[in-house]
Specification:
By secondary structure, the protein is mostly helical. 59% of the residues lie in helices and 0% in strands.
Length: 142
């Protein structure tokens, strides 16, 4: 006999009640698979929702990304990557006419932190699928 998992809510809008329950389960230390089963969603969708909530905490509640990472049990790197991808999606929608892939201010700050850490700009840009040219005239102080 096969075990099947009900994922009937995949792709459906998250309700406020479901978000509240999601964060309660995260705070209680429940694992992603168990949360996904409880919410009838896939693990990827649950993780993305949790990352979105964590970034929202950073932006709206003025907590650090390190604190948010600990609260939701997702690495800082995953949260930053999520934030960069979301900004990239927004910028692509806004700038469909531009062939160049511009950096957002968040991405520029992330890039400058990496430069200060002695990483090569071309390597960082390639990894993030961006040009190595910034669209602002900030001075880099290393």
């Amino acid at each position: 006999m096969q075990n099947t998992v009900n994922i009937s809510r995949v792709g459906k809008k998250w309700t406020k009640e479901e978000d509240t329950e999601l964060m309660k389960r995260v705070n209680d230390g429940m694992g992603l698979v168990d949360i996904a089963i409880a919410h009838q969603r896939n693990v990827t969708g649950v993780k993305l929702r949790i990352m979105g909530k964590a970034i929202s905490m950073v932006e709206k509640q003025s907590i650090s990304i390190n604190e948010a990472s600990k609260l939701v049990n997702i690495t800082v790197e995953d949260l930053i990557e999520y934030k960069l991808r979301e900004e990239d999606k927004r910028n692509q929608t806004k700038n469909k006419k531009h062939k160049e892939k511009y950096w957002s201010s968040f991405q520029e700050e992330y890039l400058l932190d990496k430069i200060r850490a002695d990483l090569e700009i071309d390597e960082i840009a390639k990894k993030m699928n961006k040009t190595a040219r910034l669209n602002t005239k900030k001075t880099v102080v290393c």
